[in-house]
Hints:
Shape: globular
Structural class: alpha/beta
Strand content: 25-35%
CATH class: Alpha Beta
Number of domains: 1
Bound molecules: guanosine-5'-triphosphate, magnesium ion
CATH topology: Rossmann fold
Number of helices: 5
CATH architecture: 3-Layer(aba) Sandwich
Helix content: 25-40%
Amino acid sequence: MNKGVWDIVRAQFVTSAVKAEQYPSPQMIEAAFIGRSNVGKSSLINSLCRRNGLARVSATPGKTQTINYYLLNAKRNVEGGADTAQFYLVDLPGYGFAKTGKSNKDLWSGFISKYLSGSDNLALVCQLIDIRHKPMESDIECYHWLLGCGLNVQIILTKADKLSKNAAMAQKALFKRELGLDDSRIITYSVTQNTMRSELINRIMTALENHR
Ligand SMILES: Nc1nc2c(ncn2[C@@H]2O[C@H](COP(=O)(O)OP(=O)(O)OP(=O)(O)O)[C@@H](O)[C@H]2O)c(=O)[nH]1
Ligand SMILES: [Mg+2]
């Protein structure tokens, strides 16, 4: 049967959580977004959902401080009708940023690592890395930690519009080597250009479909 590509047709904020008792019900399959503060996690969620202002974006690192759940409806055309699917997109606080008072490191050793290591519904973790940077210790460490949890990880190099096409390709090759990735595990993205939006949505949907 001929199947079309998935698109996101509806998105709404559901709830914020800092502990398991606050996770939303009903439970549903999930894809989570993680990465250093300011890398563009919330912006990417808005881009995928085509809803500016759905997730709060800020030029100041440390904007997102809780686990934020968004309920997404996806749709694709199939012969004679349409397939639909529902899942949670989960926006997480960034790592690698210490604010006065409660250190961001504490959050990571606490509720965020509990969320990542304890969810049977978590089909995919999208780890975002700023394409302009060299591979950083914290990113490499995070990536291996996620793999160690048995999680399915997709690397997204963000803010691709900040580099020339050639420089962006060179950075992608560097990250592929450094993390040992094939092309199916890494994608470059820009919220101002949006050219990879459909590709990324379909990678997420494939991961959700393959998760038992
Ligand atoms: N040029 C450009 N800027 C971007 C892109 N994505 C995000 N930004 C900018 O990067 C800044 C941080 O974006 P956020 O989406 O708030 O980043 P975040 O990872 O959610 O940050 P925290 O919640 O603080 O961890 C904002 O000023 C965005 O406008 C992109 O693809 N291109
Ligand atoms: Mg954010």
